[in-house]
Amino acid sequence: MVHSEHAHPFPKCLVTEFILQGFPGSLELQTSLFSVILIMYILTITGNIIIVLIIIHDHHLHTPMYFFLGNFSFLEICYVTTLSPKMLGNFLMERRSICLYCCLTQAFFHFFLGATEFFLLATMSFDRYLAICNPFHYGTIMNHRLFCMQLACGSWIGGLMTVFVQTILVFRLPFCGPNVINHFYCDVGPLLKLACTDTRPIEWIVFVIATVVVLSNSLLTVVSYIFIISTILKIPSASGRRKAFSTCTAHLTVVILLYGAITFIYVRPSGHASLGMNKVVSLLNTLVTPLLNPFIYTLRNKEVQDALRKAVAKHKIFEGKK
Description:
three-stranded mixed β-sheet; 5 strands; about 5% strand; globular; disordered N terminus
């Protein structure tokens, strides 16, 4: 939809909505994708909510590691909800439109939560570094509830500040058409290409900010794990090495999945993958990884498994009393 705007210095029609191309294909394909993604979305929300509730209600999990995990699970709930409901709705609609400010808002929350994810993962790696490399000081440093709160809030504020400047600049851009986005959500890159003004300064700002955030957090994570692995290898007993490594296996798996997807999308040489492949990898990053996280953090985590078993047993007791 467009409306006339004779006073604007750019073309006479300003875009008020965008069309998301999504995943083109037959009706059968759209129906299949809708069913699969709906199931994945429900499982993702359910799994992460369970982790948050278990951490809140089981006092044995009131430790810094699980406090950050609870934050991370809550973030994943917000992250998938930013994209999935609109994507599911588009599978059922012939016209896959999204209003201008809805699109800009979706882009904002996608990058805000995505940036926060990097900060939180780096914070979690710092927590594991202290626990394994400085166990005698860990209780003094990390068991201070205020310090944990400051680290968590710093991650969320860091994500917000990362996108603050670029959000203001993008919201002020004029869009004059075409209005078709070749993606299943509103991404900043395609949006900038549709603006009817020179966006190179904004592109450079986005690139520099994204590079600083990704590189700084990945550097902290890599350095933490270099020290962690070095410390674990010095443990004399095999059982001690396994126990120490098991405390950070889940986090390391999530880090590898996230950075692997980001590297494929943004770091690979241009032209080495199609737009369709980018969509598939983006789908893995935005839906599959949040779905896997609850399983990754529970399958090899005895404390979470015990908390789940106790919660299920307590539920059965209450059901029996009824």
